[in-house]
Structure formats: structure tokens, C-alpha cells
Design a protein that fits this description.
Number of strands: 55
Shape: elongated
Distance between the termini: 114 Å
Length: 627
Amino acid sequence: MLTAPHARALQGSPLTPAPVRRRLRLLPVPVVCLCLLALSRVAVPAFAAAPADQPNITFVQTGTNSSNLPIYTGTWSPADAGAGVVNTVSSGVTYGWVDVVSATDVGNAGTLSLNFPGYTADDRDRMTFTVNGGAGTLTNTGALNLNPSGSYNGSVYVYGNLVNDTGGTVTVASGTAGGQARFGTAGASHVNRGTITATGSSGVGGILLSGGGTSFTQSVAGSSLSVTKMILDNTSIYSGSGGAANVFSVPAGSLAGYYVFRHTQVALGAGATVPSATTFKFEGEDSAKNTFTGDVPANLTLLVQTYATSDGAFLGTPAGLANQGVIRLRGTDGYLPNGAVSRLIVAGGDGTLTNNGTLDAETIPGTTHPGEARVVGNVVNNGTVILAVRDDTGATSYTHLEGDLTNEATGTVNVVVSGTAVGDSHVRFTDGAAGTYINRGLFNLQAGTLDLMGGTLQNQGAGRLIGNGTVTGNVTSAATTAPGASAGILTVTGNFTQTADGTLEIEIGGPVAGTGFDRLVVSGTASLDGDVWVEALNDYKPLYLQTFDVVTATSVVLSDGTLDLVGPLGGRFSYEVVDGTTLRLISLIPEPASLGLLMLAGALALPRRRGRKPGSQLSQEGHLRFR
């Protein structure tokens, strides 16, 4: 063991007299290389604890392209109340690393800083701090600073368990180059009862907990974890492989930042708070290892998205789930030819997700590989649900709901399939006839196809079914159906039934269906009862006797033989069923100059809408019928 004076000599004083140094510089280059090789094979003596009056330890690496061997290996054990700084300073170095080893557990009540600048982008750049063979514990009640903050991608590794106790602070400054603080022992147990903060690059910087079976727990009120990025990695992201699942448990304290979980069981307790926008991203193909327990608070986003080299990202919940924040599924272009699936499984598929925030399930396929996003379980929506296939460029892809859907009065469901080559891509409700699909809020078929797989969409109460898309399946409406967004065409590939409580809402702003006025297109039978609401779009004034075919179907049937025309223009139109396949509206607005004459003629010759006063209308067969 070196004495303290000898330790100080290593830091600032030469080990040999000046004449010896001069003679060494005069040696031929081959001799110098042989000497360096020999020195690299000599064991470096253990390094004594830093004396109280000189706590800082600095390692200086010099020379070009030296060395791919450890620069220093020693024993470092500061007093519990002491302070220490481990620095490296580079001088013409291509890559290298510093290994600091403690033979026992380490306690820090003062300030301990591990500073490593990184020399190049070489992944061999690192500083390691190994505590008791990697199985020991570093307990911090003071200030622990981990600073991979140089101009290159160097990282600081701590092998062992970290306990950041009450009053302790851990600060990670990654800089702009993306160096990380890495806690790299598989099966390690990390605890935070104080404050942990990580700043720097959001790309690869921040904190990495690696190895299967690693756990992180924050259980004390007043504790906090705030990171630019934190990753809990696993030995594999593939289903059925790799080590044990990681555990991230936060019963109490505050969380903020961006977290990536690969085969990690995450639990938020009632005492956990999320004061600002925070993301939990789940990667990996095993829903038994990727789990979330608890409720999703307002500022939290759960992101389930495929990893760059995997074919799936699965997240399971052991029970039902209540969402006040955002749950987002992204099925992207798969790494393998069968594409990639992002899947949320609620209580094995039998549970209920109660959504009071945003549920956003979207597939973004590539040119050759498809993608899928799947919500497996029942959904009760009081917020916003987005089911989409976006930017489709050719590979047939799907977004699935595998369960029942109830969209309540305050809820909105948006269905959209878009892209340059949509093809057969669509949104599916895969339970089909066995499923229950109820809308009491706003159901917007913005574009593309919703396939009910043999099921029926029930539009009830205050529900509004709108949009320019297509429903493949049957629709029963005791509420409002309003084709288009302003003028547009809504298509039902199946049967459409409007009950006596239903309203078909038609806007008229021009002579062309889809751009000038609304149309409902039904491939099967359109059974109509209730009301047809008619209003002008952009103050449009139709011509006298101008016609508008607002419903087309294989068969149009008026369930009780009549319809009521209501709304701002309801009294100015009549209707007829043409050839049993078309519901046609006829404008009764006359020219002002002939108003008196046309009023008389119209009373005798033209159909009128049903009302409380005596009048006449055309029957389904086109005959004039007086009431």
C-alpha cells in the first residue's frame, strides 16, 4: 500500500528525479514501446484512502493511442463523512477507461464526484466504480455527482446497489454528447428516498439501469426523480427470452421526465405525483414482463411502441385501468417481414379501460412491412379515443379494438385511415357480432373504413355519428346521423336503421353530393323513421323544385310510411322515395315574382311534409296522398 505522501506524489509530483526523465526521453522509440508494454503487465498497487486534507484524486492519461488496457485499478474507500473527487484529464488520448474499485460497501455523507469527459465516440470510453465486487451498496446521504459531461460519449458506470437515502442528492450531468450514468449489475436493487436529477442529452444521455431483474423503488413522500431520460434495460426484448423482468415501483414521491422500460413491471401508488409532462415508454414483446399497475394521472403518457430491432411492444395490466392522461400505441414498420405490433392488454383481455383522457392507437406502416396497434379489452370512453392507420404507403395494416366499446355522452371517437396507398388497411372491431359497440357521444368516421367484423354500431341518446368514412357492418340509430364534415358522404356497407327517436341531419350548400350537400350511402337496406333535419350551408338558396338525393340504398323503406322534415329548411322541402332506392328532397322555395301563384298551385299539385296541419305528401310509390 502506498503511503499518503506517495499518493500525493502520484497526483502532482514526478516519481523519478529529473535526470532520469531526461534520459528516458532520449531512449530510442522501440525501447520506449517495450517499456510501456512491460509496465502495462505490472499490477498497480492499491490506492489508499484520500487524506482528509487532500480529498481529490485525479488520474491523468497521456500519450497518443494509449491505451486499451485499464489506466488505473485501485481501492477507494473514503470516510463516511469525507469528500472525494475522481477526475480524468485527457491529453492526446484516442480512447481509454478508468476503473475504481472499493473492496467494501461505500457510504457518502459529504460530496463524491465521478467525472469522466470521454475521449471519443468509442464505446470503450468509460469510468467504472465497482462497489464490493459489484454486489455491494453505495449509500448516499450527501451529494453524489456523476458527470459524463465531456465533448464525447463517455459514461460513468456504478457496479453495485445504490441507496440514495433521505437528504441525499444524486446529480447526473450528461452534457450534449450523450454520456450516461450506468448502473450495470443484473439483479441490483436501487432505492431513492432523496432527490435524483439527470440532465443532458435526451438521445442517449441520462441514467441507464441494465441487466435483468434490476429494481428501482421510490417509496418516501417528498422524494423526487426528475430525468431527461432514464432506461431500465433487460438482457433481451424478445418474448420468452432474456432474464427476469425489471421492477420500477413508485408508491410515493414525484416523477418527471422520459423513461424507457424494456421488460419492466411498473407500479405507481396513490402517493405518487406527476407534476409535469412525463412519458413511460414500453418496449419488448412480453406482456407478462412489461406491465403497468395503478392509474394514469393527468400529466403521464404511457407509450407502447416497437423497438428498432423487435417485432412487438406489449404492455399488460393485471387489473382494469383508469386513464386521466394519455395512452398511446404506435405500430410501426416492423423489423421483420410480418411487421410490428403494439399491444395493450387490459387484465388479460377481460378488463375495462376507463378513459377520461386520451387513448390513441395508431398504426404507421412502411412501404413493405405492415404494422398493427391493438387494444385488447373493453373501453368505456369519457374522453378522446383515436383509432387510426396513418401515412399508409402500401403495406396493408390494421388498428384493432378487441373488446366492447361504450362511448359516453362526453366522449369522442375519431376513426381515420389515411395515406397515399391506403389499399385494404382499416380499423377493426374484432369481437364482431359478439361485441357491443355503443355511441352516446361523438363518433367521427373521418376517413377510411371501420370494419365491425359482423357487429352492429348502436347510436343512442345524445350520440352523433358523423364523417366521410365507411362503416362495414350494420348501424342502428336512435340519435343523430350527420354525413360529412359540413357537406360529405357517409357510407354504410350493411344495413342502416333509423328509429322513431333518430334524426338524419342534412346540410345543403350546392347541387353536388359530397361537396354541395350531404348524402348517406347504404349498400343494404335503409329503414327510415323519425326526422330528417334540413339546413342551409353557407346561406345557400336552392332553386325552385331543385332536387337532392340524400339517401341511396339497395332498398329505402319508410318504416311507418312517412318522415318528418324539420330544421331551418324543413318546411321548405318535400320528399319522395324514387324507385324504392333513393330518398329525394325537393325544394319548394318559389321565385319572389310568382310567389302568390305558386302558393296556390303548390297546394294542389306538390307534395308537402307531414305536419300538425292538414296537408298532402307523396306516398313511397310517388302518388299524391292527402292526410
